[in-house]
Amino acid sequence: MIPCVNTIVDAINRLTFTASSHDRVMVVEVMGRTAGHLALQAGIASGADVILIPELPYSVKDICAHLAELRDCWKRRFAIVVVAEGIHPTGDCSQGASETRPSCSMGQYIANEIMACSAYPVDVRVSVR
Fold first, then answer.
1. 106 exposed, middle or buried (CB, 10 Å; 0-12, 13-18, 19+)?
2. Residue 84: which region, alpha, beta or left (left: phi > 0; alpha: psi -120 to 50)?
3. What share of the chain is helix, strand, coil (3-state, %, to 5)?
4. Who's near 22: CB < 8 A, 6+ residues apart?
5. Per-residue pLDDT band at 127 (split at 50, 70, 90)
6. How far apart are CA 12 and CA 40, in angstroms?
7. What digits encode the pLDDT tens for the residues 66-120?
8. What CA–CA distance (Å, rounded) separates 36 from 20?
9. Is 66 exposed, middle or buried (0-12, 13-18, 19+ CB in 10 A)?
10. Residue 70: its H or E element
């Protein structure tokens, strides 16, 4: 594995313990403005629950549904979401169909969308690597 993927995996592994002990959703934003291979490799290697990359469209509603399934069916009150910085916002939840780039980082944008869309109160924290 390349060194930057090792660094991201190490950071995610450390954040997993914090997320687990505090019942949080941790959003980890990583490099990847045009390609999501770092996010994909690090997310798979660390066992992330959700991986968002620029090459694939995503839905915040689907992310929230998956997090709710983890909570309700599997009794897991924490999750790890890996976000490449180049994902394109869909705005399918709180801010309408927006094609403009948000003023905050994409990790913070996803965290805000998860908090707005989630059916239950969720504690979300963002880490940029």
1. buried
2. beta
3. 45, 15, 40
4. 78, 123
5. very high
6. 13
7. 999 999 999 999 999 999 999 988 767 765 445 556 678 899 999 999 999 988 8
8. 26
9. middle
10. helix 60-72
Find the Cα–Cα–Cα–Cα dihedral 31, 33, 35, 40, rounded to 10°: 40
Residue that wins the pLDDT comparison between 25 and 97 = 25
Distance CA 15, CA 31 (A): 17
Which helix H or strand E contains 11, and what residues bound it?
helix 3-22
Beta bridge partners of 52: 83
DSSP string of 104-121, one letter each residue = S-HHHHHHHHHHHH-SS-
Question: What's the rounded Cα separation, in Å, for the pair 24 and 14?
Answer: 13
